[in-house]
Amino acid sequence: MTHQLPARYRYPEPTVFANVGAPASRKRYLANWLALRPTWLARITAEPTILPTPPMWRMFLNSQPGNTTSTTRAGAKKAEARAFFADALGDVPDGASMWAGDATVGFRGTAVQIASLTDPPLPFVHAILWELAELSFRSDLLALDKALIPQLWDAPIREAQYLAVFSSEVIGGTWDTPLPQQHQGLFWGTLSNPRALDFADAFRLLLSAWPSAPRGIKEPLLVTIPQNELQKKVNMLMEFYVQTFFFSTGRPPVVPHGYPGSWVA
Fold first, then answer.
1. How many domains, in total, are found in the chain?
2. Do 95 and 163 share a domain, yes or no?
3. Helix axes 23-44, 122-148, angle to 10 degrees
4. Is residue 46 located within the same domain as residue 159?
């Protein structure tokens, strides 16, 4: 049985930013996300019942100061997207962008010059995309688990099993601290590292309860298992996750990425 999940996104897809080529558009996308990010992260924890569609994200991210009152069709779509985000935007005046009149936006405790976002440092972009991938993966995994086996969430142990997949409930400990200088949590190191293997096994335990879980992921991942066998089991695990997510949503999942390193000069 296929469990279809809504085609909506808690966070913008990383590819939305990666596919923007024009410098002016890049600036708008990055500035709008970084300006929205603090309030959106706070709001999303309240489990909103209605989430943005991909077109809503693109329209909002591509808006700029002064163009939300346009009478064109595109302008109307941007105004519609802006209205959707109204609760998170707070007291921003109609027709203005969140960063209108501002010289900087913040990211992880660092002020970023908006003017620099037309041609931002590549490590900085990598850091934003890495965080978005982590955010998307965490929320997608949670939503899919609840859709596939909702009955298990009646017991507190299921939430504990989900949280065990990650090194902390919030990436980096808090939303305002600098990102970690190395990857943490799921697949952060080689499988010969017992700590890294613990996270992979927590992921295995979570997925082993899903319908049609292959027999190969039912058994624990142990340090005594040869490395080549461990890698095969982890590959099977990820393949099962990707296939299940696609069959349940009709789209490919956003998966964890290796941490790109510090972007602060």
1. 2
2. no
3. 40
4. no
Tell me the pLDDT tens digit for each residue of 193-214: 888 889 999 999 999 999 999 9
**Residue 197 to residues 167, 187, 193, 229, Cα–Cα distance (Å):** 12, 8, 6, 13
Q: Which of 191, 248, 187, 242 is nearest to 214 (CA)?
A: 242
The range of the structural domain enclosing residue 185 comes to: 123-249
Segment 143-183, tens digit of pLDDT: 999 999 999 999 999 999 999 998 777 665 566 777 777 66
- Dist CA 147 CA 141 (whole Å): 10
pTM of the model: 0.85
End of a domain among 118, 136, 155? 118
pLDDT in tens, 104-155: 888 988 888 999 999 998 888 888 988 898 889 998 999 999 999 999 999 9
Structure tokens at 111: 């002020």
Query: For residue 170, is it within any domain?
Result: yes
Residues 228, 134, single domain; the answer is yes
Calculate the CA 173 to chain-centre distance: 16
